[in-house]
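Technical annex B. To support the medicinal chemistry partners, we prepared a structural model of the target in complex with guanosine-5'-triphosphate, based solely on the information shown next.
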Amino acid sequence: MQINYAKKEVSCKLVYYGPGMSGKTTNLEIIHEKVPNQNKGEMTSIATEGDRTLFFDFLPLDLGKVRGMSTKFQLYTVPGQVYYSSTRKLVLQGADGVIFVADSQAEKLAENIESLKDLEKNLDEYGLKLNEIPLVIQWNKRDLPSAMDVEELDKEVNWPGAATTEAVAAMGDGVLPTLKLAASIILDRLNSKEPGAETKTAKMSPEDKAKKEEVYVASVNADKISRGYFNQYCQAQYRLAAKSDEIDDFKKFSPEDKSKLLESLVNHVLLLQDAKSRNIGASPDEVEAQINAFSKRFNSSGDLDGYLAKRKLSMDNLRNEATKNVIIGKIIKDIIPDVKTKLHVSDSEIAEYYNANVNKFGGKDLEGVKAHVKAGLKNKRKKALLGAFFLKLRENAIIEVYKDKI
Ligand SMILES: Nc1nc2c(ncn2[C@@H]2O[C@H](COP(=O)(O)OP(=O)(O)OP(=O)(O)O)[C@@H](O)[C@H]2O)c(=O)[nH]1
Ligand SMILES: [Mg+2]
């Protein structure tokens, strides 16, 4: 939650979570349709392939004044498909509240439970608890014949004891009440500098308190980067780059290294934001193709598993990297249509580099190192192009880095 006292403005992030096809995007579409124009911004969706959400949907909303403060809500949905676990985690970052859209159909019970557990796990990584964060569970698709009784659903799914609503999102029923309920719980929280809340805080152990007060290391436009997420990013980057025999369980970084890693994470977030504004995403097939290309390094998939295990990396870490690479590739094509020409390295350039650095090649002749030199020069050029691109993104962004928090 960002509070700007000077502008008397509160900005909250509310995330719609839930299994695939439960109706999260539909909720946002209905809100977009029903809310008067002056109160809403544009809805952005990154969806292809039968309208499944690939990254997230986003809708900024102005809910008017509460106690003299104007309240803005940023609504997000996550992609429900099991595959997109890392994206869900990223979207959840900095959430002030969650609406869990459950599919009421009996055959979806297991998926609902799995998705809520997934939410619990992802929140935990940000130091948040399912029964502490403002949470509303929406029993959606009440119109379908196999919809379970809400009492039954409550017993089976609602172990956090969250507030619940019923909806037929596709018909627009129950969508705004769910949003209003979630918004009121979040705003109550804002006002809860009341005695009750303080007693609760006072009772918490110092560790719990530290966990609850999320610390941010940077903000990039509307997104905030928590320290927890940053630490995970550092470990993952280290593991991706490390030589496998030297992996530490937990790598400690120098302040300089941390600063550099934070710069690169800020770039990563800028990239995702830019991709969103260009409607660019990475489809599962594209991500898979990247991973396949990468695993060609190994002889069989067993070796890829071995590589990941040695580096204590998960498939998610790899997918994250692959997704980033796919998106970078597309953005480059978008901003530099003639990228192929720009990245072309000519024979004379290769020869020139070879002649200038001939002592580096240990007596090998030009033919023997040509491919290597070519790849190196191409990489250098790619880096320069990307550097210029990130510089431009940074110029147009509002970035704050809290060095003392890293
Ligand atoms: N019968 C019925 N269908 C619904 C209801 N709400 C949504 N749907 C339909 O369910 C399908 C999936 O809805 P989405 O809103 O795209 O689902 P989602 O949760 O965003 O799915 P992912 O992006 O894949 O995670 C669409 O065909 C909707 O029209 C409902 O209340 N009743
Ligand atoms: Mg969706």
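Notes passed to the chemistry partners:
The domain at 2-200 is CATH 3.40.50.300 (Rossmann fold).
Residues 193-205, 207-212 have pLDDT under 50 and may be disordered.
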